[in-house]
Amino acid sequence: MTNAFPSVYVFVPQYFAFDLNATKIKEIYANKNSFVEAVGTEKYFMLPPTLKVCDFANNKLSKFYFGMPYLSILNLRNNTLGAYLSTERYTNSSNTELKEVDLSFNFIQDLSFAIFHGHEQAVKIDLSHNKLTDVTFDLSHLVNLERLDLSYNNISGISSQTSMDTLRKLSKTSKLKIDLSNNLLKCSCQNLKFLQWMDANLDLLIHTSKYRCRFENNNVLQLTNVNEVVKQLEKECSSFTTLIICITVGIIMSLLILSAGLLYRFRWRLRYLYYMTRHKYKVFQNIQSSTTYKYDAFISYANEETDFIVSEVIPHLERDENLKLCVHQRDFVPGEDITQNITNGIHQSRFTICIVTQSFLDSYYCMFEFNMARMESIYSRDGQNILFLVFYEQLRPKDLPLVILELVQKQSYIEYPNNEQGNVVFWKKIAESLGSSE
């Protein structure tokens, strides 16, 4: 029995109220009308169990939703269901006997993931003449599918490896054929996996003479030989990938070298700031020098010159000149980290005196003290030079580090004379430099 409806705008499910079940109706043709919506109500939701064909083609439907567990053919061709079907299904039936579904000409850009769930009996699905760009919906339930029409869409390729694997798997249980004709496929490195899949599954595809492919340079060619295109892209993409890797590695190496250079360039400043803030500040603050100092001078020397410090420096400057010195063997805080002791001692002293010898130059901690005092001058004393170099032995200029040589050139040094008359003048000059004498 066939039943037709006049030109109305809303398909009211109460039409089924006239006991259509008793008529054993098999086909309903509501096509070529102006329906904009056909959605079942709670009372009239299920289509009649005897109904096999439901045709709502050539309407203006924006919504369609019924229970249809026994329906065989559903024709929704030429409507405007695209927006609705992107998030909804046309049926809530978990299992349906649908064999053919026509959703062509519906402005479909995307379909809800579960739209074909329960469609184990489906043989043909027509999604042609839409605006699909990819296959993102689930195909795994279509175990008997023989024809999937995706022609005349905007599909550039199938991005999902799961979808490609599912189609290949389905072809082993049915005579599945896929129509991708009149889509503008993309021949690019990003689409290489899909093209490789096409090349390996040409037996699944029909109307391949109408397949077109656009390259990166926007040239469009007939895709008559997929294998040749795949080989060409594999070669180009391999080179492209290698180039990207080389550029990436180059950029990373450049950044690492630049970072290492900056760290090396400012290594003493960073270490100075680190030691000055450690154990003292939770938040970085600019280091401000105090107007008063605990010591008049911090004495930096190698262990080999300990006798000179004990027998000469301390007696002449502390006993005779009444200066207070910071000497590491005597004044460092027990248990405190040596680098912290050094930084604190320099920061709490008005000046730093370095007893320069070859042993001093070879000592890690002596050079550490020298550089910390240099940083103290620059960053805490407004550029005021607080460093005095005392050359206790003769050293050649070529043996001196550049930073020490710069101070020598600025006359910020004095040589120890090591004779009785010269020593008297030497200690007076040191005391004057430290500001103890008028």
Task: Report on this structure.
Helix 2 (82-85) links the parallel strand 6 (73-75) and strand 7 (100-102). The relative contact order is 0.05. By secondary structure, the chain is of the alpha/beta class. Helix 4 (192-200) packs antiparallel against helix 5 (226-265), helix 6 crosses helix 11 (364-379) and helix 9 runs parallel beside helix 11. Helix content is 34%, strand content 16%. It comes from Mytilus edulis. Residues 293-434 form the TIR domain. It is a single-pass membrane protein.
Number of strands: 19
The outline comes out as: rod-shaped
Largest sheet: 9 strands, parallel
Helix content: 25-40%
Strand content: 15-25%
Structural class: alpha/beta
Strand order of the largest sheet: 1-2-4-6-7-8-9-10-12
Mean pLDDT, nearest integer? 85
Which segments are poorly predicted (pLDDT under 50) over 5 or more consecutive residues?
1-7, 279-290
The span between the termini is: 126 Å
Task: Please give the radius of gyration in angstroms.
Answer: 44 Å
Number of helices: 13
